[in-house]
Design a protein that fits this description.
The chain is of the alpha+beta class and 402 residues long. The protein has six helices and 20 strands. It has four domains: 15-99, OB fold (Dihydrolipoamide Acetyltransferase, E2P); 121-188, Beta Barrel (OB fold (Dihydrolipoamide Acetyltransferase, E2P)), CATH 2.40.50.140; 204-276, Nucleic acid-binding proteins (OB fold (Dihydrolipoamide Acetyltransferase, E2P), Beta Barrel), CATH 2.40.50; 281-360, Nucleic acid-binding proteins (OB fold (Dihydrolipoamide Acetyltransferase, E2P), Beta Barrel), CATH 2.40.50.140.
Length: 402
């Protein structure tokens, strides 16, 4: 290598400093011999011109083409100290060449090496053909990717792949490069396996994580958290009752979930979206104080009463004795029906049991009704009607005034 290493900002570093870093990275240990196509974990030591210097645990300079770590705007996607998964290509003059994958400047011989060693190659999805897609690899080489090998799941939306440049694994190389079959799915599955191993070390029950909805079923939704997929039961989607989960979630949606259970042996994982949301009962006293009147919807009926939804995750019970407008009934369905809008008053809140007692808002409390009636009588008898003697005196008073 003739160029001197640079840092992320392009500043030159003294050559002896880089040599010291490289020597320190080796630690005086004999490193195992690398084989072409072997995948290892490396650490970024420095940037220099068109190259990235890597700590690969070997004597000699580990280098990677800088173009492999640039984004669409030409900015580096890694920094000094970052770890990378790289493939060993060759050794020449003490220089160890590595690649993230085979890029657009490669020739057919490089593609054959990539097939033999399992190194991913870049390819642009050109068009849909019978049974799959035509993919353009390095050097204008054409390859075929079956529908089943494009993604983890078969999709009828072929247009989502067209025009995209993706990493592929060459699964078949024949006729000196004239018959090449590739798989994008194989690359995704390898990456998923790496993520899974990382999750085994960090994932714990009770953790809050972000995931993506991959599919919907009547009993719940499957969520991918990047490495593992698990079930979000319909009962764990929200604090309130969910009749149709498609009204709450859709495929591809990003959501936060809490890990409920982990079973690596059986490959079973369950999540809760409800536990990631605020508990509505923490605000019940503020939102639905005792004595307040609200309009709710009858959620379900039982022989002992009707449950009315006041808000998401907050239901109250109107006891059967409070239904029927004074008539004796044997089931709540004789007075109300599911889905009916009902005006109710909060009679009592039991925070410990998470229960709310309701009464129809039109039903007056007995004590209050009696008090109001007595006040009405007192007001009328004292001010409006007067005594019986007063009633007799009124006609006489009229005569005198005349």
């Amino acid at each position: 290598m003739t160029n001197h290493p640079k840092d992320n900002h392009g500043a030159e570093e003294p050559e002896e400093d880089f040599a010291a870093m490289l020597e320190a990275s080796l630690g005086g240990k004999a490193a195992p011999k690398l084989e072409p196509g072997q995948k290892i974990r490396a650490r970024v030591l420095a940037f220099s011109g068109d190259w990235v210097f890597l700590d690969v645990g070997q004597k000699g300079e580990g280098v990677l083409d800088r173009r492999e770590v640039l984004d669409a705007e030409g900015n580096p996607t890694v920094a000094v100290g970052d770890a990378l998964e790289v493939y060993f290509l060759s050794r020449a003059g003490g220089e160890l060449r590595f690649a993230l994958r085979i890029g657009g400047a490669a020739g057919r011989s490089d593609l054959e090496d990539a097939w033999k060693s399992g190194i991913p190659v870049d390819g642009q999805v050109e068009k849909e053909i019978k049974g799959g897609f035509e993919v353009r690899l390095a050097g204008q080489t054409r390859a075929f990717c079956p529908f089943s090998q494009m993604g983890p799941r078969r999709t009828d939306a072929a247009e989502q792949w067209l025009g995209r440049t993706l990493p592929f694994r060459i699964t078949q190389y024949g006729e000196q490069g004239r018959n090449i079959v590739v798989s994008h799915r194989a690359v995704l599955e390898e990456e998923r396996a790496r993520q899974r191993e990382s999750l085994r070390e960090t994932l714990r029950e009770g953790m809050k994580v972000r995931g993506r909805v991959t599919s919907l079923r009547d009993f719940g939704a499957f969520i991918d958290i990047g490495g593992v997929e698990g079930l979000l039961p319909i009962s764990e989607i929200a604090w309130g009752r969910v009749e149709d989960l498609r009204e709450v979630l859709h495929e591809g949606q990003e959501i936060e979930v809490v890990i409920k259970s982990i079973d690596w042996a059986a490959n079973r994982f369950s999540f809760s979206r409800r536990d990631a949301l605020a508990d509505p009962w923490e605000q019940v006293s503020r939102d639905f104080p005792e004595g307040s009147v609200h309009t709710g919807k009858v959620a379900r009926l039982t022989p002992f009463g009707a449950f009315v939804t006041l808000g998401e995750g907050v239901d109250g019970l109107v006891h059967i004795s409070k239904l029927g407008a004074g008539k004796r009934i044997s089931h709540a369905r004789e007075a109300v029906k599911e889905g009916q809008t009902l005006s109710v008053r909060v009679e009592k809140i039991d925070h410990e049991a998470r229960r709310i007692a309701l009464v129809p808002a039109t039903e007056e409390e007995p004590e209050a009704a009696e008090t109001d009636f007595r006040a009405f009588l007192a007001k009328d008898s004292g001010a409006a009607m007067g005594t019986f003697a007063d009633l007799l005196k009124k006609p006489q008073d009229k005569k005198k005034r005349k």
